[in-house]
Amino acid sequence: MSLNVITANRLNDGVVIFLTGNGWSTDLQQAETAEGKEATAALLTRAEAEPGVAVGPYEIAVERIGEELRPLRYRERLRVSGPSVDYLKPQAA
Amino acid sequence: MYAYDAIDRELVETRVAEFREQVARRVSGELTEEQFRPLRLMNGLYLQLHAYMLRVAVPYGVLSSAQMRKLAHIARRYDRGYGHFTTRQNIQYNWPKLEETPDILAELAEVEMHAIQTSGNCIRNTTADQFAGAAADEVDDPRIWSEIIRQWSTFHPEFSFLPRKFKIAVTGAQKDRAAIKVHDIGIVIVRNDAGELGFQMWAGGGQGRTPMIAKLIRGFVAERDLLSYLEAMLRVYNRHGRRDNKYKARIKILVHELGADEYARQVEAEWARIREGVLSLPQAEIDRIRAAFDEPPFERFEGDSRAFHGKRFEDRGFQRWVRSNVKPHKKPGYAIANISLKPVGGIPGDATADQMDAVADFADRWSFGEVRVAHEQNLVLPHVRQDDLYGLWLALGAVDLDTPNIGLLGDIIACPGLDYCSLANARSIPLSQALSERFGDLDRLHDIGEISLNISGCINACGHHHVGNIGILGVDKKGEEFYQITLGGRADEDAAVGRIVGRAFDAHETVDAVETIVETYVAQRRDGERFIDTLERTGPAPFKEALYGAD
Q: Domain Nitrite/sulphite reductase 4Fe-4S, which positions (chain B) (predicted)?
């Protein structure tokens, strides 16, 4: 049975957030997990009840590697880690 | 440059105030996201993978130095110190905060800029030849006509909710630098046999999942009739465009399914009804707008500068930059200087706030305060004295903006891809960086010669991969990034959609595959033959064989 968490973007700045047992966190490791359709749907319902905090909540599949949670899809791994490119450093000619 | 009149000013300031209130209502919970989303999109504010993204319009790619400084200030004050110039001649900020967005729009309004027409199913910000008003081959200045289109299209009540977004491009020369044949409507400024100025009207071009080249709808539309003809073109599209299916909603599908002749027939019928109406352009109004684009006070020179040519002889680095980045100007003794935003290993189209400020300074010092944005994601100083080019080149070098690769393999067009975009399937930027590093040797780059390499992170084709001589499309295969290669695309006056060469490659293989394609070209080319010409002569077979082996 797949393991899921709920993710969204934070209203104020769009930052990626995850639903925890106590609100939202930018840290995936704090996310509350759900197994199976019913439990995941219940989590999503809880997330949707807070439209003033999170925009567009949806479920993503994750796996547990040791103690760590990791999204299964590459897109979601990138959402967790941020852009893979170094955008702040002035570019060298 | 065109300056806002009282109506423009009030319109933009009213919109800022309105959006400020809408944001406050969203933050307070009075508006749901569903209610707020169309409102923020009307103001160019998207929600992307990691943050909001604000797309700011640069109408027909024209910026004053004051506007460029404001863009730098916004990057520094409200974002993370950089901005991204796009293939639509806009600039995007990747990290604005929602509550600060009205402040950003208010700051933009101070310099006559905004984010209107950068999103939604309206007539989008018109694009134009980045060499407008400077090009040696220009029939007429496309800025005049783009500005007229801007005034007609902004908040056009009938076309505010079209079946899909709608993009118009204008070129003032036969040499197409605005990719007009991959726009919903492409306009070429021409003169007829009687020497009168007018427009060739093309329609139904576009990229995305169904790439198509525009069809000629009318060979000549007189100056006074430009807006009435455009209105007729839009009206037929608005009437028949597929609102039931997003993927079939663009005008390219309508023109394809009706046939260009039938679409043209309906446009002509509509035009006959309206051409003598309120949209007939008064000569006085054309003259008023033309006057806003009067030439800057050029000095008179008899011919090319001898000192300039002397410097080219003395300094190989300068000569290399001139060869690729400097283009002929309509006035003797002047030149058009292209500023590459594609440093080796850099992010195509990105500029830091410091670089933007520097470009504004260079524009004031050497180009009458004017800057242009090119759809290839570069900047242009349109009017530089040949005698000043060497000083400009040195100054550009001090801020890492002197890469001599315009039109060459390092001048890669790339969308933000999966690093930023919520629609993307694969990353574009790291691949473009790897390719630009692989081809980072400038001598080799110049030896390979003119070639376009375009990368998109998804089928929406923001990186114009369909019309790259070499096009690369990122695809998601079971959660992994792969890249499909097309060959033979071009975005010029002989526009064509590239063809897929074979199975997709992973990111590492893709860099090698491009190397193989380039090596095949070098082995096959005849004297002075560009990549696209070799490919069109040989066909794709030698390239396919080199990539995948013989059948």
A: 119-272, 454-547
CB contact under 8 A, A90 and B352: yes
Residue B101 clears pLDDT 50, i.e. is over it: yes
Residue in the block written with tokens 């567009």: A56
Which residues on neighbouring strands pair with residue B82, listed in sequence order?
B352
Q: Span B6-110: which CATH code?
A: 3.90.480.20
Helix (H) or strand (E) holding A76: helix A74-81
Predicted TM-score (pTM) of the model is 0.96
Q: Given this model, what pLDDT does residue A93 score?
A: 34
Does domain B413-548 correspond to CATH entry 3.30.413.10?
A: yes
Percent of chain B past pLDDT 90, that is, above it, reads 99
Q: What is the DSSP letter of B384?
A: E
Residues in chain A closer than 8 A to B97 (CB atoms): 12-13
Q: Do domains B6-110 and B413-548 have the same CATH topology?
A: no
Chain A contact present for B328, CB below 8 A = no
∠ at Cα A27 (A19, B350), nearest 5°?
110
β-pairing, B470-477 vs B499-500, is: unpaired
Interface contact flag, A93 B99, Cβ < 8 Å:
no
- pLDDT band of residue A89 (cuts 50, 70, 90) is very low
Report the phi/psi class of residue B261: left, alpha or beta, with left for phi > 0 and alpha for psi in -120 to 50: alpha
Distance CA B305, CA B513 (A): 43
Looking at the complex, does the CB of residue B378 fall below 8 Å from at least one CB of chain A? no
How confident is the model over B56-85, as pLDDT tens digits?
A: 999 999 999 999 999 999 999 999 999 999
Give me the amino acid identity at B80: R
CATH number of the B306-398 domain: 3.90.480.20
Q: What is the pLDDT of residues B303-362, one digit of tens each?
A: 999 999 999 999 999 999 999 999 999 999 999 999 999 999 999 999 999 999 999 999
- C-alpha B114/C-alpha B42 separation (Å) is 11
| B495-540 pLDDT per residue, tens | 999 999 999 999 999 999 999 999 999 999 999 899 999 999 999 9
- Show which of residues 56-115 on chain B sit within 8 Å of chain A, judged by CB atoms: 80-82, 94-95, 97-99
Mean pLDDT of chain B: 97
B29 contact residues in A (CB cutoff 8 A): 51-52
Chain A neighbors of B26, CB-CB under 8 A: 11
Long-range pairs for B12-20: beta carbons < 8 A, 24 or more residues apart: B12/B109, B12/B112, B12/B114, B12/B116, B13/B109, B15/B43, B15/B105, B15/B114, B15/B116, B16/B102, B16/B105, B16/B106, B16/B109, B16/B114, B19/B43, B19/B101, B19/B102, B19/B105, B20/B102, B20/B106
Contact between B47 and A87 using a beta-carbon 8 Å cutoff? no
What local confidence, expressed as pLDDT, does residue A92 receive?
Answer: 39
Strand segments, DSSP code E, in A1-93 are: 3-10, 16-20, 23-25, 34-35, 54-65, 68-71
In this predicted structure, what is the pLDDT of residue B551? 64
